Amino acid sequence: MSDAIARTPKGFLQTMRQDIDGLMRRVGKVPPRLLPGGADVASSYRGTTAERDALWGVPSTDAEHIALANMMVNWFNTDLGWTESYYVAAGSAGLTVPGLAAGAFSGWYPTGRGPVISLLPSAAQSITSGMTFANWAPPGTGRSWRRGGAGYFTYASGLITCVKAGRYSVDLSLSCQNGSGSGAAYMLRNASVVDPHVLYVGTYKLDPSFGTTELMRAGDLEMNAGDTVRWYAASIGSAVFAGGADGTRRSTGEFTVSYLSPLFATE
Question: Which pTM does this prediction carry?
Answer without folding.
Answer: 0.80
